[in-house]
TrEMBL record:
Lineage: Bacteria, Pseudomonadati, Pseudomonadota, Alphaproteobacteria, Acetobacterales
Source species: Acetobacter conturbans
Compartments reported by the entry: Cell membrane
Protein's recorded name: Cytochrome b
Family: Belongs to the cytochrome b561 family.
Membrane-spanning segments: 12-34, 46-63, 84-107, 142-165
Length: 184
């Protein structure tokens, strides 16, 4: 049996850390839409800095992917699935970067402070504009819904590779597996 070529340890750590953070953020966003007052402010105080951390990690992750290419997909994978994998990863990376930027822009356009943590505030990236705020608020919601759908598809593909195809794609990212060689 040949060794499975895996993503680097750094790439796997970033993947799973960001997966947990992004899922948490999506659910917090849903709860934020359904709450108000103190609960809303508490969720928002966590949502803003976590979104900015996800933005920074996404940029680091994209740079890592550029300099440390992922393992190749199995030769047996049909071309349409290769294209779907590439497209879904482009969409995931795009949303990991766009969502926090749209949120930051939305707050800027609404003239809200961009609180990173405590007394650390970030500068606005857009001018105050109520119409732009409304547009970006809707965009942030639709991007969030799209993000959730793409994650469900991504998870479905991961389960397909893990449970049915068993073609080495899943263990390439599953960091808890042992006995396989890492290509770092």
């Amino acid at each position: 049996m040949s060794a499975i070529v895996r993503f680097s340890v750094f790439a796997r750590m970033l993947h799973w850390l960001m997966a947990a953070m992004i899922l948490t953020m999506l659910f917090i966003g849903v709860f934020m839409a359904a709450t108000e007052g103190t609960a809303y402010n508490t969720l928002l105080a966590f949502h803003r800095p976590t979104g900015l951390i996800i933005l920074a990690l996404a940029i680091i992750r994209l740079g890592n992917r550029f300099f440390v290419p992922p393992p190749p997909l199995p030769a047996s994978l049909p071309r349409i699935q290769r294209m779907a994998a590439l497209g879904s990863h482009i969409l995931l990376y795009g949303l990991m970067i766009a969502m926090p930027l749209v949120g930051w822009g939305m707050l800027s356009a609404g003239a809200y402070p961009i609180v990173f943590w405590g007394s650390i505030h970030l500068p606005p990236i857009l001018p105050h504009n109520p119409a732009l705020f409304a547009l970006l608020r809707h965009a942030h919601t639709w991007f969030g819904l799209t993000f959730f759908a793409v994650i469900v598809i991504h998870l479905g593909a991961a389960l397909l590779h893990a449970l049915i195809l068993r073609d080495g794609v899943f263990p390439a990212m599953a960091s808890w597996r042992t006995g396989q060689r890492d290509e770092d």
